[in-house]
């Protein structure tokens, strides 16, 4: 080596190799559900709707935390259409009294139980039934797909509210479970279609083909591979539909076909308050606003879940 090059090499600082330097760890890849939860926690739409739904669920489960008044107690002599007392928060006279002298505030709190119970019950039934029908039709195809799809089309062609009215009029006593079954009888078709379309796409995936090649049973493929991956669009539709079932229950109760006295329901109060629209509009407005807020909260939640579960919308 020439002397000039040796001097140049000597003048350069020695490069130390970091022997004990920690190696950066690669994070574990997140699944679709953990990634969706990560996005939901940072979505203001989800936070607002989540707070509203948490309050509504608390009202339904433990109404005594919000009021000690009896929603069925009537006092015509003292409280006939008494005006709201806006200066007293969380008291029985906050929203005034109805035509029978009952506290509107107490009835609004206790009315959440019936409306949310109907919505949750119907959503659970239609989600289970629609998922099973759609999954079987999409996975097996052929004659099974034809039969199940045509049955779904028949039920889908019946107007939802009109069909529920026909079913409910055949019962002399319309209890809570009767309304739930009547709405679920016609409400499963949309979820069945969504589940079928999702299964048609997923059953062509490589991991499903690999499971078949390894000799996995049909039950194992459906429950372990197809169902968990097909539930994302079903959950989105079910969450949005839950608010629709609340409005459907209120509509049927308003028409006098759904829940009735002595059951405390927002729809029942709206029906009785329509007669006093000119004299005491608050009797009608308060339960109507509660229905609107509840439906809006579940629709907002459904939109937030859809944005989190659909990678194309991120």
Helical coverage, percent range: 55-70%
Number of strand segments? 0
Beta fraction of the residues?
under 5%
Distance between the termini: 60 Å
| Topology pattern, helix = H, strand = E | HHHHHHHHHHHHH
Shape: elongated
Low-confidence stretches: 4-10, 14-19
What is the alpha-carbon Rg in Å? 29 Å
SS class: mainly alpha
What's this entry about, in short?
The protein is an all-alpha fold and 314 residues long. It has helices at 3-11, 32-40, 44-61, 76-79, 104-140, 142-156, 160-168, 176-187, 189-202, 206-213, 218-254, 266-273, 282-309. Residues 4-10 and 14-19 have low confidence and may be disordered.
Characterise this structure.
The structure is a single chain. By secondary structure, this protein is mainly α. It is 66% helix and 0% strand. The protein is built from 13 helices and no strands. It has helices spanning 3-11, 32-40, 44-61, 76-79, 104-140, 142-156, 160-168, 176-187, 189-202, 206-213, 218-254, 266-273, 282-309. 36% of the residues are buried. Residues 4-10 and 14-19 have low confidence and may be disordered.
Primary descriptors:
mainly alpha; elongated; 314 residues; 66% helix
What's the SSE blueprint?
Layout: H1 3-11, H2 32-40, H3 44-61, H4 76-79, H5 104-140, H6 142-156, H7 160-168, H8 176-187, H9 189-202, H10 206-213, H11 218-254, H12 266-273, H13 282-309
Helix pairs in contact: 2-13, 3-5, 3-13, 5-6, 5-8, 5-9, 5-11, 6-9, 7-8, 9-11, 10-11, 11-12, 11-13, 12-13
């Amino acid at each position: 080596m020439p002397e000039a090059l040796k001097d140049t090499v000597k003048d350069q600082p020695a490069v130390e190799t970091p022997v004990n330097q920690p190696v950066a760890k690669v994070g574990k890849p997140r699944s679709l559900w953990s990634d969706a939860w990560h996005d939901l926690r940072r979505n203001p739409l989800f936070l607002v709707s989540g707070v509203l739904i948490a309050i509504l669920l608390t009202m339904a489960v433990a109404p005594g935390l919000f009021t000690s008044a009896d929603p069925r107690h009537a006092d015509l002599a003292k409280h006939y259409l008494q005006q709201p007392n806006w200066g007293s928060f969380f008291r029985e006279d906050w929203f005034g009294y109805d035509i029978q002298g009952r506290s509107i505030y107490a009835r609004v709190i206790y009315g959440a139980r019936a409306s949310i119970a109907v919505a949750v019950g119907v959503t659970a039934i239609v989600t289970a039934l629609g998922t099973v029908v759609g999954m079987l039709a999409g996975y097996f195809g052929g004659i099974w797909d034809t039969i199940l799809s045509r049955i779904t089309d028949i039920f889908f062609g019946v107007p939802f509210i009109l069909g529920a009215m026909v079913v409910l009029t055949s019962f002399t006593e319309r209890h809570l479970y009767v309304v739930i079954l009547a709405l679920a009888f016609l409400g499963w078709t949309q979820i069945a279609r969504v589940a079928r379309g999702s299964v048609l796409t997923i059953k062509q995936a490589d991991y499903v083909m690999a499971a078949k090649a390894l000799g996995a049973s049909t039950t194992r493929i459906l429950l372990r591979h197809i169902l968990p991956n097909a539930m994302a669009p079903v959950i989105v539709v079910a969450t949005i539909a839950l608010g629709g079932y609340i409005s459907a229950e209120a509509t049927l109760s308003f028409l006098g076909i759904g829940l009735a006295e002595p059951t405390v329901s927002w729809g029942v109060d709206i029906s009785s308050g329509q007669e006093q629209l000119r004299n005491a509009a608050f009797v009608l407005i308060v339960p109507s606003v509660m229905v609107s807020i509840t439906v809006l909260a579940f629709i907002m939640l459904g939109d937030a879940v859809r944005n989190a579960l659909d990678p194309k919308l991120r």
